[in-house]
Amino acid sequence: MVPAPSMVAIFAQQATAMIFDEQQLRYCRQVTLVWVVFFILNGTVASLTACCAALEVWSLYNGLIAYGAMGLLFTTEQFYRHWRFRRYAGLPTDTFFKKLFPPQEEPQQREA
Asked: Which pLDDT does position 104 carry in this prediction?
């Protein structure tokens, strides 16, 4: 039984007007899991700093460290996804990523 596409996959397909293959759908599910784990850990640390740490520690974590970690995860995932799949759909970042990770040539079909 093939699992239903994750919300990430649905949003990505709508934003890019591309049909994803099974490998890309699996990747979207994995990315969704990574973000869920990140937000659970982040929420836990934020809660602990709110109730058990000094105001300075809470401010540093929730005002700088959490956003830095979120930005790092987002940026890392963007670079990895473009390196791995090299599919471009006309998004504003595609010009940059096409230069960094040129699209792979599609294998040519032999005529019988």
From this structure: 76
